[in-house]
Every structure is written in C-alpha cells, then in structure tokens.
Amino acid sequence: MSDIVPPEVRPKPAVPAKPPNVGAPSPSSPFPPQGLGVGGGGISAPPPSSIPVPIGSHGPSHGGSHSVGHGIGHSVSHAGSHTAPHSGSHGHGGSHSSSGGSTLLGYIGIDTIIEQMRKKTMKTGFDFNIMVVGHSGLGKSTLVNTLFKSQVSRRSAGWARDEKIPKTVEIKAVSHVIEEGGVKMKLTVVDTPGFGDQINNDNCWEPISKYINEQYEKFLKEEVNITRKKRIPDTRVHCCLYFISPTGHSLRQLDTEFMKRLSHSVNIIPVIAKADTLTIEERQEFKQRVRKELEMSGIEFYPQKEFDDDMEDKSDNDKIREAMPFAVVGSDKEYQVNGKRVLGRKTAWGIVEVENPNHCEFAQLRDFLIRSHLQDLKEVTHNIHYETYRAKRLNENGGLHPISSAETQETVLPPLITESTKETNELSLIFLCPVEV
C-alpha cells in the first residue's frame, strides 16, 4: 500500500483551459456519461441541466448532504455544518439521501420510465367502446363518423336502406381498428336502433341496461377464471352519448328516466343533436333549461364532481360542466369555404361548419371526449362503475363460479365472512391450524 501524502504537499492537478463540452446523454446511447473517478476515462461531469445550483454556491448541491464544486478553489458545503476549502474536482456516481428527499448527482435514467410505458402500451394497443342512444334521425351515426373522421358507425358497416325500424330496442355493435401516428385503437361503436321510436316506450331502457351489465359480467368471469388470459378483452361501455332532440322546450320524460336509471352504471354525456336547427339564443336557453332539469332530477352526468382528483381537475371540469350539454352538428361531407376544405352542412343560406366553434360545439365535444378525457373515461368505468357491479355480484351469492379455459373444472370462490358465519369460520381455522404438543 502506498504511503498517504498529506493534502498540503499534494501537487495540484492542472486546470484545463476550457471545460469539456458535456451535455445530456444521447437518446440512442444506453449508458450515461461517466464522471471522474467512476468511468476513469478522462474528465467528464454529469449533465449541467440535471444538477441544481443553489444561490451563492459554485457547484451542484443536494439537500441534506454536500455539494462538490469543480475546479480549484471550490468548496464542499455541508448543510447545517461548515464549509471547508477543497482543491481539485471530484465526481460522484451516486446520490445522498435525507429526510426531505435526495438530489441525483448524475444521470441515472429514471426519466425513461415514461418511454418504457409508452412502448409497452403502443404494442398492446387501446380499447375504447362508445354507445350512442337516441331517437332515429338525430344523426347518431353521422356524428360518430365525424368524431373519428372515418366510417365507423353501424350504418357505414353494411346498413341497408330498406331496413325497418325494429319493434324493440336492438343492440348492434361494430368494431374497427383505427390508427393515427402509430397508435392503434380498437374502437367499438354500440348503436341502439329502436330506442324511443315506439308508441309505448315503457322500459325501453332495459335492453340497454342489460347489455351494459352483460359486459361487466363477461369481464368479471374472465377475472375469476383459474387460467386467466394475459390480457382480458375489454368490451365494457366506457361512454354513452345520449342524444337530446333539439325541441328548444324541455327534456322529455323518457330522456329523464333513461339518464336517471343508467347514470350509475355508465358514463353518460348528454348532447343536443342537430343544433343548427336552433338559433344561438334558443340554443343557450335550451342548454340552461336542460342543465336545470338534470339537476332537479338528481341526474349526474360525466364528469361527476366527486371524481375530481385535485383543484386543477376541478377547475377544468367545472368549465366543461358549465358548457354541457354540447350543442353539436355532425357531417361527413366536405365543402370549399374561403379556399379551405371543411366538414359542414350546406343550407340555403350558407354552410354550417362542423369544426367552427362559432357555428356549433362539436370541436369542444371532440376535444373533451378524445383529446383530454378518453383515458379518464376508461378509468372511471373500471374503478367506479365496474367495481360497483363487481362488489354487488360477489355479495349476492358469496362469490362466483369461475370456469377454467378448458371448461372442465370449477372452483368456487370462498364465501364472504358475515356475522352469521364468523363463528363457524373461526372454529374451522382452529381445527386447521397445527398444534404443538
């Protein structure tokens, strides 16, 4: 072992005329730059952008520990202790933690977690299931095609012109895989032809409610199977667009009854269809009247106030709730307006531009539904509506009977412990536990 030379007789290292150009690591490089004493391959330092420099110091610092300066005359400062002179420069490859957190002295790469998640989800893709409910002739299929700028509705997938209105509500689902910017999404549009078109509309919402619960049941059975799939197909309805007729007066009793009965099972978003039939003043009065009637009936539409996570979400959602129900116009036809091709509806007095916020609120609905709240719609469906159904089902008979993939054996979930069975379960545990003699 070599003798230790006292610091006062050690030769000072030569100071480079200009510090080396050290920047953030290249995205293509899997390894971060090495500091002096770690890599041993020349003078290098962590990226300057990743090192906070406190006021009054000459180098990087981290709370609760010490900061190391680079160059001659820099100091090592200890929080709450003393400052000692230090000559030379030293790089640290680790971090020092304290009760208030830690600051990294070098680039580690934890910021790549987001990129890893993005690649993972890009491979698996996304599912989004949207249901449209309303009278015939309100433009449900046209609006869905306009939302996704593609022929994705039921009518676009083989609807015949001579098709008659069904005597009862029928559920028809059409799935498409749409891609944009390398992101693939399986979109399922669930249409409800025949809703509200009959003379007697008693309980016409029951087939819709049954379909929604059937998708929850299908997902639940897949979850409790002995051999579960790596990725359970998600057919649950994430969003229900309810189309309100542009009468300009008030909601019909059927509208109120439907939203009241299904608001606790699915995310309902009310929209005023064919808003170009109303003047701007009529539209604003109708929107206010609809909001007041929904509030008086105790109907909660998405986004619900109790689901706001923080003040920022509350502020954004309050603006959305004040603008709902959105008065929309749908069209899949293009017209030439001021030298630009726009989606719109041609009338005798001009062209109603679908994406023009001065003409209708379609752009607000699209941004809200797809660009800002699509993931939240899926999370609320899973964490709130599906969990409510799941808890109810598991409490009914003390559990489900999951079936294996081969459907050859059955396993009964253990019953829930209630007051009536508590003593029996405790007695069983006493006999099952091994006793030392």
TrEMBL record:
GO terms for molecular function: GTP binding. The keyword Signal does not apply. Residues 52-88 have a biased composition (Low complexity). Its main location: cytoplasm. One of its GO terms (cellular component) is cytoplasm. Residues 1-100 are annotated as: Disordered. Keywords: Cytoplasm, GTP-binding, Nucleotide-binding. It is found in: Cytoplasm. It comes from the Eukaryota. Residues 124-396 form the Septin-type G domain. InterPro entries: G_SEPTIN_dom, P-loop_NTPase, Septin, Septin3. Transmembrane segments: none annotated. Belongs to the TRAFAC class TrmE-Era-EngA-EngB-Septin-like GTPase superfamily. Septin GTPase family. This is Neuronal-specific septin-3. It comes from Oreochromis niloticus.
